[in-house]
Amino acid sequence: MNIILRGLKNMSLNDFFSMGGYAVYVWSAYGISFIVLFLNIILAIRNEYKTLNEIKKRLQNNKK
Amino acid sequence: MYKWIHQFGSPKYFYDISVRLSKWIAIVCAISFIGGLYGGLVLAPADYQQGDSFRIIYLHVPAAWMSLFVYLVIAFSGAVSLIWHIKITDIIARASAPIGASFTFLALVTGAIWGKPMWGTYWVWDARLTSELILLFLYLGYIALQSAFSDKRIAARAGAILVLIGVINIPIIHYSVEWWSTLHQGPTISKLDKPSIHLTMLIPLLLMVLAFKTFYITTLLIRARSEILEYEYNSSWVKKYVIK
Amino acid sequence: MLEYINIFYVIFKRDLTLTFREKTDFINSLAFFIIIVLLFPLTFGSKSELLNTIIPGIIWISALLATCLSLETIFRSDFEDGSIEQLVLNRYPLILLVSAKILAHWITFGIPIIVISLTLGVILSLSNEIMMALFITLILGTPILSLLGSVMAVLTMGLHGSMLLSILILPLSMPVLIFSTIAIQNASLGLPIVAETYFLAGILILAITLAPIAAASALRIRLS
Q1: Cα B40 to Cα B117: distance, rounded to the nearest angstrom
Q2: Å between B180 CA and nearest CA of chain C
Q3: Residue B203 in this model has a pLDDT that exceeds 70
Q4: ∠A22-A1-A9 over CA atoms, to 5°?
Q5: What was the pLDDT predicted at B12?
Q6: Which residues does residue B51 pair with via DSSP β-bridges, in sequence order?
Q7: How far is the CA of C61 from the CAs of B110, C48, C67, in angstroms?
Q8: Does the structure show a pLDDT above 50 at C201?
């Protein structure tokens, strides 16, 4: 717990964003990763909704 | 054992379990992501050689591990579906492929970005990066083969044979590439072979590995669910589920 | 047992006669191979030191690409006219049928490639050590390509285009390419090539044991 709080105290926002001069590399790597992971989960969820809706439609058509 | 396999293999059973589980796995994933990121980006001290650029390790290593792990999962489920003709392993294999391919892609991209400050260029014909690249091609071949068939059962079983050959080939590929790269550029400085990694650096890494693994399971479950619905749209339980 | 040898021989001979009767595919893939190899001296100039270092690698890459092209035809006509189903339906083991076809492919494609490569090597005046290494790697490597490629050919037969087949074969044949080119480079530097030869031989044995089994089960899946 102590370590976690100390981390927050010692860190200035500037240091955090500049990453000791490696900001471009570190943040672009993290950025790309999050875009890819985000797309993965979003596309999967969208796919599930689409399938559900399709099946719903198909069932309703069958009832008519 | 057989009974268990068949019960687990029944799509309805898998669907029910996945609905119940995925929320909790997603929560574990989110927590470990936040913890890993906080620990990796804030708490871990800068490396004395590489400075802050080493923080890419928290993406690169989990992605690289998962890229191989997912391929092994596909191969294992392929073997199971070849032997026992279980529907659910077909679905797991197919649903895993795009996620595994994106992990491989991430491992390559983060490796290249990390290489720029470390080696001076984005791309080095390092043994690990090269075999990772070939792994990406193996994934793309598998996905291409899957989409070439209209019959999903045949696609799954043909894909299983392809992936099993790939699994036999991966160690050979890795070894040949290693053989080749040591010949070409002399021993490269290996970036991970440090004798001891400090605990404040290691714990976030383990958290990120856990986060990537649970992320994989979460996405896999979601993808598998929509595949199951497509497979089973005519069965009574799907109708009940959809109308509800 | 004798019966099995007999059926193996029958299928093998049938494939050979078919290949030689319908020459176009056979000639086209070999012509493709020669053209690619000869494109490089034309683009890089005719300095022999440079050619000595790059031609063996180019021969290997061209052989790989030509294999991808030629493998597309190995099961195509049988699949299209339905004779493959006839062959599958009889009571002989599928492995026999598949290995006969693979052997026929290697005889009608691999051996011409080796002969042409050596001829091209003589014409382009490669040194003796390089010729020797080229011969050894080709004679060990081309059967691997035939074996590995035939599994992929079964998996993709009847699907559109040879592009898919190439995408499947190329990454998997990377080790063969790597070990062969290392061996040739070592030979050109006067170093021994024993290690690479052993690796290639090991991969070949692995491929001989596993590829017919894989191709047979792939065939069963495709025709199910």
Answers
A1: 19
A2: 7
A3: yes
A4: 45
A5: 80
A6: B47
A7: 30, 19, 10
A8: yes
Its domain, for residue B224, covers: 22-243
Please list, in sequence order, all residues whose beta carbon lies within 8 angstroms of the beta carbon of residue C43, skipping any fewer than 6 positions away: none
C-alpha pair distances (Å), C123 with each of B91, B134, B234, C187, C193: 55, 35, 67, 19, 24
Which H/E stretch holds residue B47? none
3 state DSSP class of B51: strand
B12 found inside a domain: no
Dihedral class, residue B51 (left if φ above 0, else alpha if ψ from -120 to 50, else beta): left
Q: Radius of gyration (Cα) for chain B, nearest Å? A: 20
> Can you give the pLDDT at residue B188?
42
Question: Closest Cα of chain C to B153: distance in Å?
Answer: 9
Q: Which residues of A touch B (CB under 8 A)?
A: 3-4, 7-8, 11, 16, 19-22, 25-26, 28-30, 32-33, 36-37, 39-41, 44-45, 47-48, 50-52, 55-56, 58-59
Copy the structure tokens of residue B118. Answer: 């470390």
* Domain-embedded: residue B179: yes
CA dist B69 and B82 (Å) reads 20
Nearest partner of B53 among B69, B40, B68, B39, judged by Cα: B40
Query: Mutating which of B110, B217, B235, B237 best tests the A interface, going by the most A Cβ atoms within 10 A?
Result: B110
Q: Which one is predicted more confidently, C33 or B191?
A: C33
Tally of domains in chain B? 1
CA-to-CA distance for B133 and C170, rounded, in angstroms? 13
User: What does the domain layout of chain C look like in residue ranges?
Assistant: 2-222
Chain A residue at shortest CA distance from B53: A22
Tell me which DSSP letter residue B120 carries: S
